[in-house]
Amino acid sequence: VQLQACGGGLVQAGGSLSLSCATSGSISGLNGMGWYRHPPGRQRELVAEISRDGKTQYADSAKGRFTISRDNAKNTVYLQMDSLTPEDTAVYYCTADTLTWEMGTPIAQRHWGQGTQVTVSS
Predict the structure, then answer these.
(1) 70 burial class (0-12, 13-18, 19+ CB within 10 angstroms)?
(2) Beta strands in the chain (DSSP E)
(3) Residue 111 near residue 1, CB atoms below 8 Å
(4) For 86-106, what is the mean pLDDT?
(5) Side-chain half-sphere of 37: how many Cα atoms within 13 Å?
(6) What is d(CA 37, CA 118) in angstroms, rounded to the nearest whole number?
(7) CA dist 101 to 3, 29, 122, Å?
(8) Who wins on pLDDT, 80 or 5?
(9) C-alpha pair distances (Å), 121 with each of 11, 19, 38, 76
């Protein structure tokens, strides 16, 4: 599975950005998808995740400002980010979880995209 994230960039505080992440390659058994971010000088953290049937979870910092969604037909996950602040500056990574079976054994994997830079100026 390969993930291609796009949509990052530079925006002023209070502005919005939309990220998208499309999957390609062998995508059998695709389940949850999500977004993580890695702020400068801090550890990578979960932003939001969405199950295949649309259940969502958000980090406290994202609640009320970010919206995660997905298009199962396109195997694509989106992140709409509104009311951005400089604290949202980070490299954003998308993830895709797959569950496949090999000789009767379940194989769960998390696949990561290459990251897209989001910079919010004050």
Answers:
(1) buried
(2) 2-6, 9-12, 17-24, 30-38, 45-50, 56-58, 66-71, 76-81, 90-102, 105-112, 116-121
(3) yes
(4) 94
(5) 23
(6) 9
(7) 21, 9, 48
(8) 80
(9) 6, 18, 17, 28
Q: Give the Cα separation of 91 and 88 in Å (integer).
A: 9
- What is the identity of the amino acid at 93? Y
Q: What is the pLDDT of residues 19-42, one digit of tens each?
A: 999 998 767 788 999 999 999 999
State the Cα–Cα distance between residues 39 and 24, nearest whole angstrom. Answer: 27
- Token look-up 């993580």 returns 36
Task: Report how far apart, in Å, the C-alpha atoms of 43 and of each of 24, 32, 40, 66 are.
Answer: 28, 22, 8, 20
Q: Token pair of 12, please?
A: 């002023």
Angstrom distance (rounded) from CA 16 to CA 10: 10
Q: Is 57 exposed, middle or buried (0-12, 13-18, 19+ CB in 10 A)?
A: middle
